[in-house]
Each structure stands twice: as C-alpha cells, then as structure tokens.
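Protocol step 4 of 6: structure prediction from sequence.
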Amino acid sequence: MGIKKDWQAEKKSLRELHNELTGSSHELSHGVWPFSFTHEHLLNNPKMEKFLSKFNDACEKKEKAEDQLLLELWNFLPNDSPLKEMGAEKFYSFWSRLNRDPYQLAVVDPEMKIIHSMILADQFSGDGFNPKSERFQIYKNHVNWIMSAPDQNYLERWSKDFIKCKNKAKKPDQGLLKIISTFQSISISWDGFTLDDCPDSKNIMKEILHNQSDDFQKSMDFNSKIDWDKKIMIASKFVPIIC
C-alpha cells in the first residue's frame, strides 16, 4: 500500500453521503458548524459576509492540522493492522472531526503532535468509548493485534504515544481547554444577528476574564498578549477560532 497524500477521495464520499441523507447539496464549512442556527441564517445576512469568510478560513486551518495528523497515522500503520484493513474511507469517517470531540483530543495532545492521539483520546479523556459502538470494537481489535506483537517497530511507537497521552491526560493544559470550552459555549449561545457576542478570540478572552477568578487567570498564563496569542493559535487547531 503506497503513501497516502490527502483525504480528498474520502471527503468527497462523505459529502455525497451527506447529500444523499439530507437531500441537500449545500456544503457546510469543512464539515464544521458549531452554532445552534443554520448556515443560511448567516449566509442571508449581508453583515455576516466578512465573518463567514474568516470563519471558513479558520475551519480550513483547523481541518488542515487535523487531517495532517490523521494522515501521518494512516501512513505509519502496518498494512495488516485492523485500522488499516478497514479501509481509508471508513477510517477517516471514524476518526476525523466528524466523529470526535476536539476537547478530548486537546486533553491528550495539546500540541497535536502525537500521531496516535486521534485514536487514544477516547481512552484517556471524557466518558471514554461507547462499548457498544463499532469504533470501540475496531479499537479493541487493534489493541489485541498490537499485543500479539506482529511489528516491533510499531509496538514501540504505539507504547511511547500511549504513555505520552496518558501523562498529558493526568495534567492537561487547563488554559487551552478553557479556551476551547469557552468557544463551544459562546458558539451555542450566539444568536448570529450581531458580531458583538460572536465566538472570536476577543470575545473568548472577554468571557474568560469576566467569569474567572484572579488566581485562575494567573495560573493560565493569560497575563500578557504574547501568552494569550500563543494559546489562541494553538486552540485554533482544535476549534475554528477567528484570531
């Protein structure tokens, strides 16, 4: 099996499935729509044209970071791995942003550099896997395959990534998680009529500073613009924040 360069074929297939199930040919921003209202609500408002353009750019940036990490994992998997044997389309639909909470991924891999973090996020954060889900069964099969030690090089990399994710989950980046959860909260509550309370970096910072104690703010290293800008840039890999 050759080196995979992108997920274009898988994305096309998922778009076609979406159109078939919904009867709509309209494509949402990179499969991401965190708001409680429809895409048309903003699309039909001329005042939101600039916001939508920036939001699309933020989604593209987020998608690019996620897809690259997932691509590295796919290309690293041995051909006889249960994850590889399921096929690229199913693998992508199971482990991409469409079926994963970005908050959980940020818990175990705040820098988005651990190639197995995409499939280990459920192991160490949130409520874990749904034991009745097909995704859990595939993960379980993959772990059983690893335990049979068919590929020593892969086993060593898996073990290192497993430990890294486990350690990160014990002491997660609270500042990063606060930004992500605040983005999600503002996105749900935003009515989409004005930009005064939209989920951009300015309003996220305002919300955090308004609701948190001085001790919390100090612990998050939000005391300078440089610290804040750095943290926001990292968070924008997990959620589509307009910086």
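Step 5 (inspection) to follow. The CA atoms of residues 77 and 84 lie 6 Å apart.
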